[in-house]
Design a protein that fits this description.
303 residues; alpha+beta; Rossmann fold; seven-stranded mixed sheet; 8 helices; 53% helix; 18% strand; rod-shaped
């Protein structure tokens, strides 16, 4: 919430000397005779904030026309209190409370705007920003105007197109088309910045392609980063597989040797059995031959 704390005008059109401190809350009525300066007070508010003159019935917007007749200069001071992140809404603010709370609590800041118009000479815009961190001074007409719009989040045109109606300009709001009204409201509510950000950060086709390329590059970089470790692990696995293969080969050779030993033992046993069988099979013939030989020797007798 942005609150008007003070309105001061000196020689501003027909306002010779006005210095108002407004209470914090309430509804305020400006009452007076015709040409007493009621509308001029609102002109002073608008000029004090944005440094611009309202378009009057004559259509003029020259700042020199804001100086009271016969005077060389006019001065307007507007004090605004706003939070660290101001919202969009103007409310009067109590001067007595402001002295104790402005810039002192919950990040609120006090903007003291002073604008001096000098006839046929350079005008002077001044801005002092009081905050818990100290006072920041902004000088220079362009710098002050730019900073005010930046802090408020809207400019004078947006304010005129929404909630600040110039005298005899009500038809301006009525005659605006929907697009213009939406544009003004978005500007006042700072939604235009959000729309710009939405457009800026909106994902387009080329953004998706770029994202896909970036993801592929990231995946490639990850693979390349993991490649040495994978290669080392692969080498270890291959070494283990080689060891396992050699171990299996050695076990196979040992098993084959055992099998060969068993077969050789079986062959030796079979050979022995066969030899014994042959001896047993030939023994009757040998025995008969031996008997015949003995008989033959006996029949011949001794020599």
């Amino acid at each position: 919430m942005i609150r008007i704390r003070r309105i001061a005008a000196h020689n501003f059109k027909q306002l010779r000397e006005v210095d108002l401190y407004l209470p914090e809350v309430g509804r305020f009525l400006v009452q007076g005779r015709n040409e007493a300066g009621k509308s001029t007070l609102f002109e002073a508010v608008f000029f004090g904030i944005f440094g611009q003159a309202l378009v009057t019935e004559t259509g003029t917007r020259r700042l020199d026309d804001l100086i009271a007749y016969g005077m060389e200069k006019a001065r307007v001071e507007i004090w605004l209190e706003a939070p660290a992140h101001p919202s969009t809404g103007l409310r009067p603010f109590d001067e007595a409370q402001g002295r104790h709370s402005s810039g002192q609590g919950s990040g609120r800041r006090l903007f003291k705007i002073a604008r001096t118009i000098v006839r046929d000479k350079a005008n002077v815009w001044e801005l002092d920003i009081e905050s818990p961190g100290g006072i920041e001074e902004v000088r220079g007409n362009r710098a002050v105007n730019r900073r005010i719009v930046q802090e408020l989040g809207f400019d004078g045109e947006a304010l005129l197109n929404t909630c600040f109606v110039e005298q005899k300009k009500l038809e301006k709001l009525e005659g605006m088309n929907r697009a213009k009204r939406e544009e003004s409201l978005m500007k006042l509510l700072n939604l235009d910045a959000m729309v710009r950000m939405e457009q800026e950060f909106k994902i387009r086709g080329e953004d998706r392609l770029a994202l896909a390329r970036c993801e592929q590059r990231a995946e490639l970089a990850r693979i390349q980063a993991e490649l040495p470790e994978k290669e080392e692990a692969l080498g270890q696995v291959e070494g283990k597989l080689l060891f396992i293969g050699l171990r299996r080969d050695v076990d196979a050779v040992v098993q084959e040797r055992r099998t060969i030993g068993q077969l050789e033992g079986e062959i030796a046993a079979l050979t022995a059995q066969r030899q014994a069988h042959d001896v047993h099979r030939r023994w009757p013939r040998v025995s008969r031959s031996f008997s015949i030989s003995t008989m033959w020797s006996t029949s011949r007798g001794p020599w």
